[in-house]
Amino acid sequence: MAVNRNLVILTIGLLCTNAAFADDQKAQVNYMLHCQGCHLPGAEGSAGRVPPMNDFIGYFLHSQAGREFLIRVPGVAHAALTDAEVSELMNWLVQRFSREQLPTEFIPFTVAEVNELRRDVEQSPNNARSLILANIAADNPALASEISKNKN
Questions:
Q1: What residues form DSSP beta bridges with 46?
Q2: Which of 58, 90, 93, 114 could in theory staple to 83 by disulfide, Cβ–Cβ 3.0 to 4.6 A?
Q3: What are the backbone angles phi and psi of residue 52, rounded to the nearest 5°?
Q4: How far apart are CA 125 and CA 77, in angstroms?
Q5: What are phi and psi of 107, to 5 degrees?
């Protein structure tokens, strides 16, 4: 009986691992299709034109305004993806490209949160981005030099 129980537990574990891997693959494909054209394969952006996400996007999650901005920015809000796909993509993206910059208490985006935020598209993303980053730096001096060094 113990062998059968262990086999069931192992099978469930493998299925969960495969499901998580499949979600990561799906998120990566969605990144390639919907983000990579501008932000480039390594999420490095293009100086003066497209902001970098690599080693940077996690800073936005140090404030509620920054968190909301990541979903409200036009490229995300208007993406031809479901809310579930956007939440999956954004959770993958911040952990894949900016894990070190995430707050220790990072809470993944939810489908309901994405649904609500996408309704209120940011009309002035460049100004909002600058203001949000300035506020995060002011509220958290330990991050200020890192943000200013990489904010493009």
A1: 50
A2: 114
A3: -75, 150
A4: 12
A5: -115, 125
Q: Considering the domain 2-150, what is its CATH architecture?
A: Orthogonal Bundle (1.10)
Q: Are 143 and 136 in contact (CB under 8 A)?
A: yes
CB 89 within 8 A of CB 24: no
Please provide residue 50's backbone torsions phi and psi, each rounded to the nearest 5 degrees.
-130, 120
Q: Which of 96, 113, 81 is nearest to 28 (CA)?
A: 96
Tokens of 56: 């940077």
Residue whose structure tokens are 């490209």: 97
How many other C-beta atoms can be found within 10 angstroms of the C-beta atom of residue 118? 17
* Polymer length of the chain: 152
Tokens for 101? 């910059």
Residues 14-38: tens digit of each pLDDT = 444 433 444 789 989 988 888 878 8
Query: Residue 15: what pLDDT?
Result: 47
**pTM for this entry:** 0.81
CA geometry: angle at 48 spanning 45 and 50, to 5°? 30
Contact predicate 72/65, CB 8 Å: no
- 54 in Cβ contact with 98 (< 8 Å): yes
